[in-house]
Amino acid sequence: MGKWEILDQFYLIRDYCRAGYRKVVLCAAGISLLDGVRPFITTVLLGYLLDAVYEGAPFGRLLRIALTALGLECLCYCMSSILSEIHNQKHDYIYEQQNGLLNKRLLTMDYKYLEDPNTHTMLHTIRNAGTDHGLIGLVLEDWKDFFQALTAIVTAVVIAFPLFTQVNPLREGFLNSWLASLLLFVVIAGLVYFSFRVDIRYGKRIRRSHQKRAADESLLEYYMGIFESSERQKDLRLYGQRRLVQEQTDAASGRVQKEVDAEAALAAKEEIVRRAATALIGLFVYLFAGLRAYLGLITIGSVVTYAAGIVQMSEAMADLMSVIASIRTHAPYCHDYAKFRKLGSRKEEGKKVPEYGPGSRFHVEFDHVSFHYPGSSEEVIHDLSLSFDTGKKMAIVGKNGSGKTTFIKLLCRLYDVTEGCIRVNGVDIREYDYEAYCDLLAVVFQDFRIFAFEVGENIAGSGEMDEARVREALDKAGLAERAKTMEQGLHTFVGKEYDESGVNFSGGERQKMAIARAIYKDAPFVIMDEPTAALDPVSEYEVYAGFDRMVGKKTALYISHRLASCRFCQDILVFDRGKVIQRGSHDELIEKDGMYRELWNAQAQYYRRIDR
Ligand code: ADP
């Protein structure tokens, strides 16, 4: 564990305190103090009681001592129980809270991190660390045990200190010497250290085994997603891949089981060694204290107090070592959490707000922009420089993989450029407030998602919808007739996952909903990436024909592999291998020898063949 990794755990605890879990943390601290001190109350008062009996004290005094022990023990127990009650009330939901914090981070982090496999490995580690109470439960438990053990050690040292220091100057003998006390101390320290090393060694082995199964667990999670999804099962069934997935799942769960068994065996061995070391310490201390009492150096009551105190201390020390080992074992998870929570929110840095009103124009400029995806060295956009003014229809065409979607993703700030700069109205788009910048854009991606919410909520992007505007958007996207047949109207659920009366809309209907969502947003830029891919020819025609009606006078960037559908755009950009190699209107481009004409002819030929 690095020197500063301990701080990761405090960040984690601090985040939970800020998220309303301060009470849980304070209660945990109180419980550890009380539980640390409690065992010593009986130990000390039992010593007093024995001495009093030995001295022939009256019954009243004996009763007072016994009642004091009982009272104090009861008080500690009650206080600890009250704190536990308060602690557990909120602690039971801590895993949900953990997921809430992680999800919030996932929703706000830079998009590029969502595609980074490291992010998912981190997330998996964090989510799977600990059991019912998640990583935070694990860390709180560690620190609770740490403070409990520390309190017990400090209390035991205070109580048992005289055993080592009481030497009678009038008597001779090795047992009455400082050397004997020192020797006992060294033996205890040696056994505790041995126990600690064992913990560390086993902890490392357990951690290795845990890491080994993390990849398989991740794989199993992926397979579970396949089993539960009717969409994915479709391909699985049709291509006879059920057996393949079943075999892979069985193999992965077999490997996980093997590692879990190995971890349990290691934990059991570790416990045996720890208990043996504690028993040995007890043996030496009782022997030492007993012989000192036999020589008359200490009273019988002190033998019980000191010996029990030291045994408890050695147990507390072993616990402390074990908890330190556990803190070290869990440190990498917390380190992942610390890394995860720091994952980019650079998009929050910009503060400028783009100013616009109805009919506002924007000047967009790509200035020597290059880009490669995170984790890939292959440049997808090469030194791209172009500019355009909004207020017209533009199309982007090109072969698959030529960088069209990436161009849009950069414009939408899903990724930051690797080199160069994108400006809108002369301002680097990174300087704009991210949310305010996003308000400028309404995008329909090829891989759009319509969620299992109500239709209206999907279109409005919120539970609070302007029903008239939602209907208008549905109408413009060509869904007016379909909307009329929905029994629950705009409150009809998409899909049946969460509502039996929900409707399984077709791919084309979902695509129209995605278009309606973009229309409802009423942003000055409308970007459509293959917006008709899932539509039937009639719907496709309707979308083209109604395109002007849909976007009005707004700027529309339109990506399509069907060149015929781009003819209505005044400005066409032809992409090839991350560069714009041609630009102009359809009439201009078709005249020139180049990629556009090549693509046009290829498609025209294809359609002619179909016609025949
Ligand atoms: P187009 O939209 O023109 O079909 P894209 O912009 O989607 O092309 O892709 C351009 C190139 O970038 C392709 O080679 C593709 O494999 C690569 N690419 C796309 N998305 C990613 C990603 N998330 N990570 C790495 N490479 C990607």
From TrEMBL:
<feature type="transmembrane region" description="Helical">
    <location>
        <begin position="24"/>
        <end position="50"/>
    </location>
</feature>
<dbReference type="InterPro" id="IPR027417">
    <property type="entry name" value="P-loop_NTPase"/>
</dbReference>
<feature type="transmembrane region" description="Helical">
    <location>
        <begin position="62"/>
        <end position="83"/>
    </location>
</feature>
<feature type="domain" description="ABC transporter">
    <location>
        <begin position="364"/>
        <end position="602"/>
    </location>
</feature>
<feature type="domain" description="ABC transmembrane type-1">
    <location>
        <begin position="146"/>
        <end position="329"/>
    </location>
</feature>
<dbReference type="GO" id="GO:0034040">
    <property type="term" value="F:ATPase-coupled lipid transmembrane transporter activity"/>
</dbReference>
<keyword id="KW-1133">Transmembrane helix</keyword>
<dbReference type="InterPro" id="IPR003593">
    <property type="entry name" value="AAA+_ATPase"/>
</dbReference>
<protein>
    <submittedName>
        <fullName>ABC transporter ATP-binding protein/permease</fullName>
    </submittedName>
</protein>
<dbReference type="InterPro" id="IPR003439">
    <property type="entry name" value="ABC_transporter-like_ATP-bd"/>
</dbReference>
<keyword id="KW-0547">Nucleotide-binding</keyword>
<dbReference type="InterPro" id="IPR011527">
    <property type="entry name" value="ABC1_TM_dom"/>
</dbReference>
<dbReference type="GO" id="GO:0005886">
    <property type="term" value="C:plasma membrane"/>
</dbReference>
<dbReference type="GO" id="GO:0005524">
    <property type="term" value="F:ATP binding"/>
</dbReference>
<dbReference type="Pfam" id="PF00005">
    <property type="entry name" value="ABC_tran"/>
</dbReference>
<dbReference type="InterPro" id="IPR017871">
    <property type="entry name" value="ABC_transporter-like_CS"/>
</dbReference>
<dbReference type="GO" id="GO:0140359">
    <property type="term" value="F:ABC-type transporter activity"/>
</dbReference>
<keyword id="KW-0067">ATP-binding</keyword>
<keyword id="KW-0472">Membrane</keyword>
<feature type="transmembrane region" description="Helical">
    <location>
        <begin position="276"/>
        <end position="295"/>
    </location>
</feature>
<dbReference type="InterPro" id="IPR039421">
    <property type="entry name" value="Type_1_exporter"/>
</dbReference>
<dbReference type="InterPro" id="IPR036640">
    <property type="entry name" value="ABC1_TM_sf"/>
</dbReference>
<keyword id="KW-0812">Transmembrane</keyword>
<dbReference type="GO" id="GO:0016887">
    <property type="term" value="F:ATP hydrolysis activity"/>
</dbReference>
<feature type="transmembrane region" description="Helical">
    <location>
        <begin position="146"/>
        <end position="165"/>
    </location>
</feature>
<feature type="transmembrane region" description="Helical">
    <location>
        <begin position="177"/>
        <end position="196"/>
    </location>
</feature>
